[in-house]
Design goal:
single chain, 365 residues, mainly beta, Pectate Lyase C-like, 11-stranded parallel beta sheet, 3 helices, signal, Right handed beta helix domain-containing protein, Beta_helix, PbH1
Amino acid sequence: MTWLKKLVPALSVICVVSVVLMLAPFGVMAPAHAEQVTIACANTVSDDENLNSAIAASSPGDEIVIDGPCLIDGRIKLLGERSYRGLSRAGTVIRQADGANLPAMLASDSYLDNDPYTGAPIAVRSVSLDGNRAGNPRAGDVLVVRSWQSVIEDVEILGAARHGIRLTNLSADGTALVNTQVNGRIVGNHIGESGGRGIFVEDTGNSVTDWQLLDNWIADSGADGIALDNTAGWMVQRNHVYGTSGAAIAAQRLFGSTVSDNYIEDFVTVGLQVSVQGEAASTIAGNRIFRFNGGGGTFLALRVNYGTGNATVVGNTIRGNGSGVGLDYQLASGTTLSVASTGNLVTGVTTPRRAATGVTVTAGL
């Protein structure tokens, strides 16, 4: 991924005119008069219409402040180059009304407009989003992001019928991005009781790379706690994931990636499942993977997708409840796998470490 390639979505909106323009970092034009727009909800199903009207009337650079509680039966369209903030998690709660069954409660404009290009940056902060799963059994995701260089921070998401946060290269009708969607942050959020995944990074191509997924709490997911189709260039660090019905963290296609210092408890199938690409090398370090609720499974599974995979697996702490596999190194579709595996503490399992033929395990240098 080159520096220039990452700038393409932003640079495409800049026109050359006869005056000199002062540009903000990454080529985005700084607005002359950004404003704070406050929207007071009435806790009625007309709130989504009022929110969408105010957002549509806003300008790039504006901060949209939402004063809850809000009740919605239509999706909220998040225009790019704007930030969206609640008064606090408790002060601004946006709830899906019974029977709305929305495919998405809040979503990037490029997702809803089926644009082949990524949306401009958005930020969503300090708000609670209630999917009301019991009242909307046919609903979809709570927050869908299809915008590059975006920030999701200090957001509480409860009761998604499907995924809590879905970061995707696909639009509502399945249109795939033709460019990249990079350089975002998902930080310090709490996501609980999702019917599918707490956080799902969906990438059918190679667009959603080089993000940061940090310091989130993911609880009681109906499938995986965190699942990434593409983890290239990502930092997945310090997340606490527990009570999942599938894998706690499933991170695919690592390429120069870091998966570290995550705290995983009480998974069903796999605690930490990662696969690496053949060209680069990645780091899996300092994760704590425990099973207190009985049963076995695999605590840390590493695969290579193609070619020769390289990874360090260092300083992880694994504690089982009498059964299961601690460290599991396999080839999958790859040719060979070289693992520097050292300083890992594995206890309470049937098989501390398992390595397939073609896997070389060393202590490193």
